[in-house]
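Lay summary. Proteins are chains of building blocks that fold into shapes, and those shapes determine what they do. In this project we predict the shape from the chain. Here is one chain we studied, written as its sequence of building blocks.
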Amino acid sequence: MPVQVSSLAERDIPGAVAAIQEAFADDPYNNWVFDKSKFDPKRNAVSLGIRCRWGMRNGIFHVAKDEGSDEVLGVACWLRPHPADQPPTWHDWFEGWRLYLNQVGMNCWYGRGGLNVKRYWIWKSAQSDVQSTVWTDPRGYYFLNIMVVVPKAQGRGIGRLMMEAVTDQADAEDMRCYLESSRDVPNIQIYESFGFKFAKELECDDDGTAIKLFAMVREPGAGSPRKN
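And here is the predicted shape, written in a compact code that computers can read:
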């Protein structure tokens, strides 16, 4: 049955959230930034739903489904390039506050759900430091923020379909792409098959309890042997 990649719609959000939660259930970053003894899956689902709706309005948010089916098999979210010398627009400002207020309301209702706020900001600081070094193109980068395929659908080329939906666009615009992976094995090798190359480690250290993430960059036109 052919797989179709389409823009995320409101009806897809529950399936997208479930796919993301399944994929990141034992993710090294999630295990580090959340206290699993206090983790609240319902609160996490609400948070992901808020971010899905933000991504629908502000990013490139795709889902993969079998033709004629509503079951979400894969999810990909990209942030569009933002030129370094371009200040935030009024739309950006509004959407930033909208996301913030939605998250505040969620925290007031559900609490932190096990989120270690200190570690979250350690990660944000490490991310900022690495991006300030790695992001050398003033035109910006297509930033792959989420890429997941549910386990039962892996091996069908769904990840490639979702990846190429944006990397082909980036190639047409002569733009670079960027991502941060929470695993080196096997993720780095997988992303290398799409033309990404390792750029720098993000080390997130909370008084000796640390994780590493792996920043990768894709040059325009890079890709699999099939496309070269």
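What the prediction tells us: The mean pLDDT is 94.
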